[in-house]
Design brief:
Structural class: alpha+beta
CATH architecture: Beta Complex
Largest sheet: 6 strands, antiparallel
CATH class: Mainly Beta
Number of strands: 17
Protein name: Hint domain-containing protein
Distance between the termini: 36 Å
Shape: globular
Strand content: 25-35%
Number of helices: 6
Number of domains: 1
Radius of gyration: 18 Å
Pfam families: Hint_2
Order of helices and strands: HHEEHEEEEEEEEHEEEEEHHEE
CATH superfamily: Hedgehog/Intein (Hint) domain
Mean pLDDT: 84
């Protein structure tokens, strides 16, 4: 039986990953990487393949898994489906009302209120019902730290020059309708990827699907790139994620569209 190219690549990368993460010098160093377990479901040759990965607990990796909390309802071609029940091969509805196939879903578990080795906490954002208008959202939404909304907060409107932006949910925190929360207990978080970057409707709000962003190439070494790409069976290189559907806002900057 012929081994699919994506699985063959994953096997090669797994060896490279093992060597990188078990380098005694790196693990003894002052900046040794903190590791996290990531769960991945991928669509391969029409079948759903589930894998587990041990990879660095770095923002680039965590952002791929930490957008939606368990129970978030994603609009699909058969109606709302809880994010934990959504599977690769299912079709979600994009911002144009077109069904788009899910090819990747990732999840991880973290404790938002517990600081990591670098002192970072992973705050969740609770969006109250009607915070963005009537039935937007329909009820309270709990979003993860990497979730981005297709909306522009007031303090970024001069930067946007009237164009729509994909904005981190934390930028909307006002202490009343949108608040930060850091539960002291473990929380399971999810993200999904389509064949192209899109905006989908989750709990009545428009969120982006996963894309590494236009700056990913600038922050990854060759070795770390192999570890990262091993999480995504549907791509061979970073440019396979395609262009961003809209520019992103964050940290006072607007990223360019495209890779």
């Amino acid at each position: 039986m012929t081994i699919p190219h994506s699985l063959d690549r994953a096997a090669r990368n797994a060896v490279e990953t093992s060597q990188l993460l078990n380098d005694p010098a790196a693990l003894r160093g002052p900046n040794r990487p903190q590791l996290r377990r990531y769960e991945v479901s991928s669509l391969l040759n029409g079948n759903v393949v589930q894998t587990r990965h041990i990879a660095p607990a770095m923002p680039l990796f965590e952002d791929a898994f930490c957008a939606f909390c368990r129970g978030s309802l994603v609009e699909t071609d058969i109606g709302p489906v809880a994010i934990e029940d959504l599977q690769p091969g299912d079709h979600v509805i994009d911002e144009n009302g077109t069904p788009q196939q899910v090819v990747w879903k990732g999840s991880t578990v973290l404790v938002p209120g517990r600081a990591d080795a670098r002192g970072r906490t992973h705050n969740l954002v609770r969006i109250m019902a009607d915070a963005f208008g009537m039935q937007r959202p329909l009820s309270g939404v709990l979003a993860g730290p990497s979730a981005r909304l297709m909306a522009t907060p007031c303090h970024m409107r001069k930067l946007s020059d009237g164009q729509q932006l994909l904005t981190p949910v934390r930028e909307f925190v006002d202490g009343l309708n949108v608040i930060e929360t850091s539960p002291p207990t473990p929380v399971e978080l999810f993200h999904i990827g389509l064949r192209r970057h899109s905006v989908i409707r989750v709990d009545g709000l428009q969120f982006e699907t996963y894309h590494p962003g236009v700056n990913a190439l600038r922050v990854m070494s060759h070795a770390m790139r192999s570890v990262y790409l091993n999480l995504f069976a549907h791509v061979e290189k970073l440019t396979d994620f395609g262009p961003q559907v809209l520019p992103r806002a964050g940290d006072g900057e607007i990223a360019a569209v495209g890779l």
